[in-house]
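Protein fold
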Amino acid sequence: MEEMNIKQKELVGVIGGKSRVSEISNKKKRLTSEMIRKLEKSLHISASILVNNYQLNP
């Protein structure tokens, strides 16, 4: 999301509330398949970009 200059507040309502968006942005939680579908539709980007595996932060 950082690469696309998307702010967390723009994702609230798309993938969840403020807490969930923060957890995802800070790599504390992974995107769910439903979140990926919603992001793909709202941001017009390929889901393949969003499904890449990444390390979670403790």
Summary: DSSP finds four helices and no strands in the chain. Residues 15 and 35 are 5 Å apart (CA to CA).
